[in-house]
Amino acid sequence: MPRNHLRARLGRLGLAWTIVCLLVISLSGCGQVTPTPEPVTIRFVHFGVDADYYQTLAQEFNASYPYITVELRDDDADDADVFINSPFALGGLRDEVLSLDPFIEQDESFDRSDFYPGTVELFTREGETWAVPAAVNMMVTYFNQDLFDQYNVPYPEAGWTLDDFLNKALALRDPEASVFGYAPLDPFLDALLFIYQHGGWIFDDLRNPTRTAFDDPLTVEALEWYVGLTHEHNVAPTQDQLYDKAFGQTMESGVYLGKVGMWIEWLSERGGGGGVESRWPGEWKMRWGMAPLPRDAQQATLAFANGYFMSSQTPYPDACWKWIAFLSGQIPRSAVPARRSLVESTAYEQLVGREVGAVVRVSMEDAVLLSPRIVEFDQALGIFGQALNSIISGRSTPEEAMTQAQREAERTGP
Predict the structure, then answer these.
(1) Which tens digit of pLDDT belongs to each residue from 85-121?
(2) Interval 230-247: pLDDT, tens
(3) Same domain (yes/no): 363, 287
(4) Position 2 in a domain
(5) pTM for the complete prediction?
(6) Helical spans, DSSP H, in 29-141
(7) Cα gap 402→393, rounded to integer Å
(8) Does some domain include residue 21?
């Protein structure tokens, strides 16, 4: 047989042999094609106000994982596979949730170091991680730009101090127009912020409290400054002034009617909106701005976080983990992403705006995340609240009230 004919025949045999080998490999399982997973449905319980947000994400997730359907629920369903909750609920959930460490360790794409310091630790007990941080909410300073412009007062900026805060509040105060420089929407939280900014404390450590220190000298000083805003400088309304019809009879009404220059509020409440869970009757009518909290001896921003938990009863843990990992990489609608890379992303700044993005990035560096252990001191917190009311009403001086509160806390214990 001529050599060229032999070569052509061998070529055809080689091609045929290759095809046969490929068929054998496919049928024998060598180089086996991964079978399509069986369809599953997982139930996810979320806060009702976020229904539209999660509906969009569920559709996007299903496009990547067609075999996983996420059923959204906004009630306390006992059959939830995944749910969002605060770390304060962790103590009562230990038998109802799975440790997520095995999933985290096996998922090479999950970057634990990307989360802001302290966020993962909020959901860690006995060395195990029980939830993935979902979002962080923090307190910031809001201000009425219309009033600042009207009274020719410079806007607050990052790095401003409590002295700056007071000077701006004084410059905005206009008794004839019932305009106040500041309104305490939540006196308890505002007082706590000013205490920690001044270097005082009511617990030895907000992250891991072991004892109270209501009578600390710096705590007393901070409270003297705080009540002075109302009773000495009158940049905040007294109870009598609060009920002035021009002011609207509540702190929120005063802000809403444009009678307040500055107030401290949660980041998630920006712009008002009048949602189901909002304190506001509607969107703020004024032009508003945002700034980090003013600093004193130190910078401290109170914050809390929510996390995604997996039920210990779920029959589909792998699918649940895929959903949790996916959610942790998304930008929350109104709160702050727990991942630094998301906060620093262009997408986040485009969503919230340059000003809000800048305030968030500065504030997260000094965020003091409220620890679930604080609930163990609920009785002590009640004692502090009663003492604060006595100070605000003028029935006691800060030193008298805090000394008595400390004695009572030591007597009753946590």
Answers:
(1) 999 888 777 789 999 999 999 999 999 999 999 999 9
(2) 999 999 999 888 877 778
(3) no
(4) no
(5) 0.86
(6) 51-64, 101-106
(7) 14
(8) no
